[in-house]
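Reference record:
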Amino acid sequence: MLGRRGARIIDGEVFRRLVRARDFLTESYDAHVLLEDAARHAGMSPFHFLRSFSRTFGETPRAYVQRLRLERAMDRLARGASVTDVCFEVGYTSVGSFSALFARRLGRPPSVWQRTVRGQVVVPEAFARLFIPCCYLYGVGPHAADPS
């Protein structure tokens, strides 16, 4: 059964051009890219590119870039970066706009999300030792006997 938009089968050459444009959007996710620039990378008119991209990948180029930015922001926030730094690193120019979009998409502001995730990621030392090679723990590591 075909969906609301019909079949998503697309010509091979058109698909390659769309992937090239998607790769361009991925590489420049943190910059302000116009639809015309992405369409130029695909060798299409902006309107045809928008329709083809949406039909092929299931989201508009703008939604794709927003999703990429939020995924990268989540990664940086989980690693402990500040909300302000993350906002500007992923390409937003306003902390308020970034926080509002983040909250709308993920259900909580970035600072609250960060505290929640950082609280869940703590690894107990005993568990961490399971992944440290025994040669390090018993012969080379900080608890090894001092030969002098």
Observations:
- Residues 9-58 form one domain.
- The radius of gyration is 23 Å.
- The mean pLDDT is 83.
